[in-house]
Amino acid sequence: MNSLNNILFAVVKVSLYFLILFGIIGVLIIFVVIPKWVRTEEVLVPNVIGKTYYEAVRTLDKEGLRPARDIQEASSNAPKGEIVAQDPVANFRIKSYQPVTITVSIGAELAPVPSIIGKSQDAAVDTLRAAGFRLNRVAEVHSETYLQNTVIAQTPPEGGGQQRGSAVNLLVSLGPTPQLMQLPNFEGQSATDVLVALEAAGLNVETEYSSHPKIPEGAIIAHKPTNGVMVRTGDLILLEISGRESSENIGRLLPFKHSVNEEGTLSYHVRIVIVDDSGERTVVDQRYAPGELIDLEQKRIRVFGETRVIVYENGEKLPETVYK
Fold first, then answer.
1. Which of 113, 168, 184, 313 is the most exposed place for a label (fewest CB within 10 A)?
2. Which of 191, 200, 316 is nearest to 263 (CA)?
3. Which residues contact 173 (CB under 8 A, 6 or more apart)?
4. C-alpha 227, offset from chain centre
């Protein structure tokens, strides 16, 4: 019995010692540690915007502060690694050793330059703006393969990665170089052959019909300007044709439209070949942006008789279209 009492007394004694120890620790925390923490010196937050990450860390440490998590953000105005924001802001008072959140620039956001070759200048500008780019300079040059007001080239080129907001330069077509040519004598020749030849030379044609006792139907009676006159690309030639108006004589406008492959961002080289009663000829041979619409009727392409239209995209032949 005495042995049990001794054990209980020892347990109570040890428990009292622990209670006293914890009491002392609690008093120290309440009256020493907490007041000291509460009364920590306040400091002004330094301005670290514009500094590099490592410069910002050193500046904060010197003031008794520490950097918290850093946020990465794209910026077109600050180079990679530069501080663009901080929280709290500069000159705000906080206690020493408190965290300051800093935002680090990862540089300007990069984006692929869209393909605008083959687009009209207005459509090209709209495409650039939609992709986050802006127009810089526009140069113009005559081109034998690109229609007037069509983009021939661009810098930077399509694809790749460029900073959003950067400028793109355009080279725009003025159309074919105006060429002087001397009109031959078309009198008595087939209207079909003359029309094909004149349009291939870049001349505009209007026709009228009348009867003639000697010149067969479908042949040229006269033309203005007359033979020997010098004309320039784009000039108007008036043809007087024997007989009545007929599609066999002057052909018909081709109601063909082709939408370029929409896949990808790079331009496609498109070649369109026409085979009709007047022979075989290439009417389109240039680069177009993905999804661009090619309208041969708008280009005023005339055909004669049964017509086959053959389209090639980047050298690959597409299914033919036949007009009867």
1. 184
2. 316
3. 140, 141, 142, 143, 146, 147, 148, 149, 150, 151, 152
4. 49
pLDDT computed for residue 229 by the predictor:
94
CA triple 127-131-136, angle to 5 deg: 70
Same domain, 57 and 24: no
Tokens of 213: 């006792």
Range of the domain at 301: 253-323
- CATH code of the domain in which 303 resides: 2.60.40
> pLDDT by residue (tens digit) across 29-80?
665 555 555 555 788 899 988 888 888 888 888 888 878 766 777 666 777 8
With 0-12 / 13-18 / 19 or more C-beta atoms within 10 angstroms meaning exposed / middle / buried, residue 55 is middle
Strand 180-182 relative to strand 230-232, pairing:
antiparallel
Backbone angles phi, psi at 192, to 5 degrees: -60, -50
Which CATH number fits the domain that encloses residue 142? 3.30.10.20
pLDDT digit string, tens, across residues 91-116: 888 888 788 888 888 777 788 898 89
Q: Which residues of 131-154 are buried (b: 16+ CB within 10 A; e: fewer)?
A: bbbeeeeeeeeebeebbebbbbbb
CA–CA separation, 322 vs 276, rounded Å? 10
User: Rounded to whole angstroms, how far apart are CA atoms 178 and 180?
Assistant: 7
Could you tell me if 139 and 192 lie in one domain?
A: no
From the number of C-beta atoms within 10 Å of its C-beta (0-12, 13-18, 19+), residue 186 rates as: buried
Average pLDDT along the chain:
84
Shared-domain flag, residues 144 and 126: yes
Question: Is there a contact between 192 and 218 (Cβ–Cβ < 8 Å)?
Answer: yes
Question: Considering its fold, how many domains does the chain have in total?
Answer: 5
Residues 295-304 have pLDDT tens digits of 998 888 888 8
The one-letter amino acid code at 83 reads I
Look up the pTM and report it: 0.45
